[in-house]
Amino acid sequence: MVYDLIVIGSGPAGYVGAIKAGQRGLKTLVIDKKYVGGMCLNWGCIPTKSLLESAKMLHKVKSAAEFGIGGIDPADLSFDWQQALKRTQQIVSKLSRGIEFLWKKNGVEFLKAEAKILSPTQVEADNRILETKNILIATGSRPAQRKDFPDALSLEDLYGLETLPEKPLLAGRGANLVELAQFFQMIGKQPIILADDLPLMPSLDAYLESYIQKQLKKNKIPVIPTIEAVIKDNYLVYNDKEHNFDMVINVSFRSAILPESVPVLELKNGFVKTDRTHQSNIPGIYAAGDVNGKSYLAHVASAQALEVIDTIMNVELPQDERQYPLNIYSEPEMAQIGFTEEQIKAQNLDYKINQYPLSANGKALTEGSADGFIRILFETKYNEVLGVQIVAANATDLISEAGILMELEGTTYDLARTIHAHPTVAEVYMDAGAIEE
Question: CATH homologous superfamily for 155-251?
């Protein structure tokens, strides 16, 4: 049997690409040595967001009296780690079954095994040599190993704990670091951030980075630069102050998980180097998602995999890579799409910023979540929107409207003219678009 496509890895790039390939009539096989759904579904995107929702629920219930709800004593509230994990696993299992259903529906085969690429047309797995016309590497990434804390726990290890640490030291950088720190803080723990470098999230607009730094300070979460810390056995010293910790969790930037390959894949900074079609230096071998180093976001991984299938089906791709949202599931959430203010300045473009606070939005006030704003960055000749940044309870959902607007080269005039339902948080788009100096 000769497959049209063998996919190595079953995360957001692998399973989405396989489903689309099956729908397009390609004989497709997915190989993964461990999980259906990969890191994102099993111990990344979905579990972390589920646990964050549990923490946010506890945080919100503490203010129930403000909403006219009596009988709840905040002092009696507690966080049940095992129940939160149970709920999380139920969600993961349901989504895993959904992936398997869609594979079966679209004729996609699955093999649980370690894969080795022998050639552009051969993959070895389960003591068999499988023939294929194309290969998609979708093996993802993992937090890079740390020399300072070689025994630090991964997120996967964290989910296996019976109880949580009281003073976790979160070592690394990025959105996951911020999300995990706020999770621990909201459930009553005392997290410490050991930042490999600053800014914490280098892809984020400096304005949003400043905002999250203020939030962490408000949450009383120390942010300590690694370069300025003196690390002892179970404490570190920074600015002549000791910070005790009882567990180290590795939230470092990621390194690629590379399958064993006899053809030599060209790498860039440890990731598979790919062209606009996500093809490697070896024709017929593609790489999508974290493993190619272009992005560490699940939705980008899926989009890349879909473009790989289009390429295999001889569909021409747009010359430029598409805009994609950057979501941070913090408290409150943050999201951005398009150019940051720093990138606009670097291009010497004339631009303006319209900013509108959630504190003036009726729906946000009724929900008790009026902490936040929307920033719209636009050029001054046609008022075309260049970038959008949102801080709001549901910013990660709201940002999609900006994505559609920018895909169509929309302007602030388009936003101001678009009727938004009232009361909704989404009205901030219309209000920000209508601001005139």
Answer: FAD/NAD(P)-binding domain (3.50.50.60)
- Architecture of the 2-143+254-312 domain: 3-Layer(bba) Sandwich (3.50)
pTM confidence score = 0.94
Question: Taking Cα atoms as reference points, which of 2, 1, 5, 10 lies closest to residue 259?
Answer: 10
Q: Which sequence spans correspond to the domains of the chain?
A: 2-143+254-312, 155-251, 332-433
Is residue 433 a contact partner of residue 416, using CB atoms and an 8 Å limit? Answer: yes
Q: For 118, what's the count of Cα atoms within 13 Å in the CB-facing half-sphere?
A: 13
Size (the chain), residues: 437
Tokens 């497959």 appear where? 3
Go through 217-253 and write b for each residue having 16 or more CB atoms within 10 A of its CB, e for each that does not.
Answer: eeeebbbbebeebebeeeebebeeeebebebbbbbbb
Q: pLDDT truncated to tens, each residue of the chain (437 aa)?
A: 899 999 999 999 999 999 999 999 999 999 999 889 988 888 889 999 999 999 999 999 999 999 999 999 999 999 999 999 999 999 999 999 999 999 999 999 999 999 999 999 999 999 999 999 999 999 999 999 999 999 999 988 999 999 999 999 999 999 999 999 999 999 999 999 999 999 999 999 999 999 999 999 999 999 999 999 999 888 899 999 999 999 999 999 999 999 999 999 999 999 999 999 999 999 999 999 999 999 999 999 999 999 999 999 999 998 887 789 999 999 999 999 999 999 999 999 999 999 999 999 999 999 999 999 999 999 999 999 999 999 999 999 999 999 999 999 999 999 999 999 999 999 999 999 998 76
Provide CATH code, domain 332-433. 3.30.390.30
> CB under 8 Å to 210, separation ≥6 — which residues?
none
Output the CA torsion sign for 182, 183, 188, 190.
Answer: negative
Q: Are 2-143+254-312 and 155-251 the same fold in CATH?
A: yes
Say how far apart CA 135 and CA 122 lie, in whole Å: 9
- Pick from 103, 130, 125: which is nearest to 113 by CA? 125
Contact 124, 116 (CB under 8 A): yes
